[in-house]
Design goal:
Elements: H1 4-24, H2 34-63, H3 68-75, H4 79-106, H5 109-118, H6 126-135, H7 146-160, H8 175-180
Helix pairs in contact: 4-6
């Protein structure tokens, strides 16, 4: 009868011996049968397809949506159908990152926000990107004053003049007046 400590030592010794044999090449990986090989091949194909799709999304995000047409043609993708899907996919990915870890995403606003604002000039991407821009205010701590973030977001979009209609409630005031007077809810 072994004690628990002795059993643990024996298991550790067996692991060390097995590792030495693997390093020396005495132990080979088990051979797969045909069905297992086929399953492995299918899984690798799925993984490759996912990686390719993610790579395309990454390129689209960093190059800019306005230059996506030539990028899609390079990959042989139908521009008219895929562009709208790509815009929605990119905004969904960014929203997911914002929900998952907003403060960490806010550290990357310096590179992310100019890309978003630049691409609000695209007729196709303007509305989803404007909505995304306004929603990203939630990543920043406004000290329990979310209205300030909403105000700054809408004011920024008005200055950028995106290729979509903005919420009428935020476009009634004169834009020059908005910057010359501090908002009442801030004081």
């Amino acid at each position: 009868m072994y004690s628990f400590k002795e059993q643990q030592e024996e298991m550790q010794l067996r692991k060390e011996l097995e590792e030495k044999k693997k390093k020396a090449g005495l132990i080979k990986a088990p051979e797969l049968n045909e069905k297992q090989k086929e399953t492995m091949r299918l899984e690798l194909e799925k993984e490759t397809a996912i990686r390719t799709k993610l790579r395309k999304v990454k390129y689209c995000l960093f190059i800019g949506i306005s230059s996506q047409v030539s990028l899609f043609k390079t990959f042989g993708i139908d521009v008219s159908a895929q562009m709208h899907e790509q815009v929605n996919l990119v905004t969904a990915l960014i929203r997911g990152a914002a929900v998952g870890n907003g403060p960490s995403l806010s550290l990357r606003f310096r590179t992310l926000l100019p890309v978003i604002l630049r691409n609000t000039q695209s007729l196709l991407a303007a509305k989803p990107l404007c909505n995304l821009f306004i929603d990203l205010r939630k990543c920043v701590d406004w000290k329990h004053n979310d209205l300030l973030g909403l105000f700054i977001g809408h004011l920024t979009l008005r200055y950028e003049q995106p290729k979509c209609e903005l919420d009428k409630a935020w476009t009634e005031e004169d834009i020059g007046r908005d910057f010359n007077t501090p908002p009442l809810f801030y004081s």
